Give the backbone structure.
Amino acid sequence: VFRQPARQGAPAARNRAIAAAAAPLITGIDDDDRMLPGRLAALVAAHDERHAFTCSGFLHERDGWRRPVFARARRITLADLLHYNVVGNQALMLTGRLRAVGGFDESLPASQDYDLWTRLVARYGPALRIAGASYVFRQDAATASISGSPRAAQGARQYADKHAGLMNAAQRRSQRLIETIAAGRRLRLADVPGCLALPTAGVLTRYWLAGWPPARAAQARYRRLRWGSRPGT
């Protein structure tokens, strides 16, 4: 166990662990999340140095409900990542590669994992996502989280500025959409047509419908039909 001499934030703590790691492969887990049985074995079995890193889908758990996210196998290219974080917040990679790209950017208030995936793929080529969801990402309303905070919008903005030189016009539109959602701002109806053609259109749809009462009611009915009861009850 390593203790920081002063509170410096999660990226600095992660970088401390990365510097101390002795194994050739490395991954992470946040304190309020969980790995499901078999996750590490599946990631190690799929690991191939031709890919920048290996990841899987995850279960997004919020207010007691779960839904799978990014559970289909695919190769993840730099073009994909410059639109949206299609990895999640954890992956398995060579420890040496993680150190070579400088670990987590401690100047970012949020989106540090997204920034790291982008730098790894830009340097080492596409990543591999295996099928299935083997990680539980918890985001309960009562849990203090950076998601949805002013820091999330600031992190999204800094990410877009940092990697702007790699982006085309469509990717920059995707980044503006992500920042809008992170800041909790309402989209203008005039903005919707230009966003629907983007790979981030699914994000737009969920955001657009989130505040629409009939959509919320339909989502609740779907959860009851799918789960019967909340996981763990």
User: Anything to note?
Assistant: Strands lie at 25-26, 34-35, 54-62, 65-69, 74-76, 93-94, 127-138. The chain has a mean pLDDT of 85.
